[in-house]
Amino acid sequence: MKFLTAGESHGPGLTILLDNIPAGIPISSEAINNDLRRRQGGYGRGGRMLIEKDTVRFLAGVRFGKTTGAPIALFIENKDHKNWAGIMDAEGEPTDEKSFVRPRPGHADLAGFYKYGLTDLRDALERASARETAARVAAGAVAKALLKAVGIDVFSYVHVLGGKALPIGEGLDYTQDVTSFIDYVEGNDLRCASDDATQIAVRRYIDEVRKAGSTLGGEVHCVATGVPAGLGSYVQWDRKLDGQLAQAVMSIQAVKAVAVGDGEQGSLVDGSVFHDEIRLNADKQVIRPTNRSGGLEGGVTNGQPLLVKAWMKPIATLIKPLMSVNLDTQEEEVAHFERSDVTAVPACAVVVEAMTALILAKALTEKFGVDHLGDIQAGIAHYQARLTPAPL
Ligand code: EPS
Question: How many domains does the chain have?
Answer without folding.
Answer: 1
